[in-house]
Amino acid sequence: MIKKAECWLFPTIINVYNLLDSVNLDEINNNIEETELVNTYHKLFNGKGLRSNSSRFLDSNLGLKTAIQECVDSYNDQLGLYPCEVTYSWCNIYRDGSTIKPHRHELSLISGVFYSKADDNSGELIFDNPCQPFKVNEISTRLTEYNRQAFSFKVSLGDLILFPSWMMHYTENNFSNQRYVVSFDTGLKK
Predict the structure, then answer these.
(1) pLDDT in the model for residue 188
(2) Please, which residues have CB within 8 angstroms of residue 97's CB and are 6 or more apart in sequence?
(3) CA 111 vs CA 95, 107, 155, 174, 177: distances in Å
(4) How many angstroms separate the CA atoms of 182 and 168, rounded?
(5) How far is Cα 30 from Cα 163, in angstroms, rounded to an integer?
(6) How far apart are the C-alpha atoms of 64 and 99, rounded to whole Å?
(7) d(CA 122, CA 134)
(8) What is the pTM of this model?
(9) Could you say which of 34, 118, 125, 176 would form a disulfide bridge with 153 (CB–CB 3.0 to 4.6 Å)?
(10) CA–CA gap between residue 27 and residue 164 (Å, rounded)
């Protein structure tokens, strides 16, 4: 009999939490609407949305910041990393047809995105397989969990998605009227 043992080498963990029962979405969305927003004519955006001018959005949304930090602490512990804390945060309003181009968050350890307003037509959040550039000779005959080039998350209202900041990610086309997102980066706790 042939024996088999699977060894998962160098896995990457992305955690999805839902904070619907932990935060006040109406308050968060009102704060987003009252925040000074600018057109997102930025190299990552296609110009169909708004972004906060400030990089300290969560400092005026302490209930959400506390809930996010609890999840970051848990994620940190799961990964065995030195503790980190939310440092930069901003909010975005995405209109119908908006996308975000592939990017990663440099100078951060863990990044995250919280969906305070999202519906079934919100574009999915996509992560590229970081091993893909090294698989130049692989030819797949069918899609499996081992050869996928990317993974998509169908986002829902109240979702918080945490991921290593070095992961390349982007969004599909957003077909909802408006989607509200709070994004953030972390740094080592002092």
Answers:
(1) 96
(2) 46, 48, 173, 174, 175
(3) 23, 10, 16, 21, 26
(4) 18
(5) 27
(6) 25
(7) 32
(8) 0.92
(9) 125
(10) 28
* Residue 65: φ, ψ to 5°: -60, -40
Write the single-letter amino acid at 15.
N
* Helix, strand and coil percent figures for the chain, each rounded to 5: 20, 35, 50
> What are 108's two structure tokens?
């951060």
What are the residue ranges in the chain where pLDDT is below 70? 40-42, 47
SS3 per residue for 140-182: CCCCCCCCCCEEEECCCCCEEEEEECCCCEEECCCCCCEEEEE
Sign of the alpha-carbon dihedral angle for 127, 129, 130, 136? negative
Q: Which amino acid is at 19?
A: L
Both structure tokens of 64: 């959400």
Question: With b meaning 16 or more CB within 10 Å and e meaning fewer, what string describes 104-126?
Answer: ebeebbbbbbbbbbbeeebbebb
- Structure-block tokens of residue 38: 């600018």
pLDDT tens figures, 37-56: 877 556 777 767 888 888 99
